[in-house]
Predict the 3D structure of the following.
Amino acid sequence: MDANLHLDAPGRNGTAHVRHLTRRFGPADARPVLDALDLDIQPGEFVALLGASGSGKTTLLRTLAGLDPVPEDAVVALPRPVAVAFQQPLLLPWKSVWRNVALGLPEDARGDARARAEAALAEVGLSHRLDAWPATLSGGEAQRVALARALVREPGLLLLDEPFAALDALTRLRMHALVLDLWARHRPATLLVTHDVDEAVALADRVLVLAGGRIVLDLPNDAARPRRRDTASFAAMRDRLLDRLGVREHAA
Ligand SMILES: Nc1ncnc2c1ncn2[C@@H]1O[C@H](COP(=O)(O)OP(=O)(O)O)[C@@H](O)[C@H]1O
Ligand SMILES: [Mg+2]
């Protein structure tokens, strides 16, 4: 393992456990993007993370995904494996759909790669596209392939960085239902980064706001799913989050 990559074993009971995570870019006296951030995600919990553009959401996800180094004095202890899907599906254009999904498998699981990729693609409703080329997929289909590639490794922690942001509104709603369905079936701890407050309130057990490098608001939501968006409790939670994000226009 990369010596820089100093990732601890998962916390007690498989909790994803982050303590004192500081990340800064540029000079040592630059203002940190993440400033001694603490975060816990329980096994099977669905957490959404909101924050203004540039607040450090992707920086946090990249660190949890093991793509960026963890500083020596931070603790990052995660249930493994960790899988990640980004706003862009990032499929390899020269590999068929099922081979792109098989890329999500660890080296030692490549023997039954085709069967496992087929099963993951069936779960996202793409059994009919196994041998298709990425260039022939719609945006929603490509993002479903990216989800299948993340799920095929049966992650203990699923990281989603604005995975629906580039999709049209109707496709986005369908993807919400699909992600909830997959989460309910596999139950990975999930951290969904989004800038869409309604998406966060509709999907997550807990909604966090990242600002000034830390989690500044942490709101549980135990409403049953699927959630109606036209209820008073939904609106109340949306308002609290918009207030904290500083984007609500206050009625006089
Ligand atoms: N590799 C990098 N080098 C320099 N600055 C970076 C790098 N990655 C992110 N940043 C800066 O860190 C801040 C947070 O970025 P990011 O985590 O992408 O924010 P978000 O995903 O919340 O929009 C931004 O100011 C961005 O310019
Ligand atoms: Mg980002």
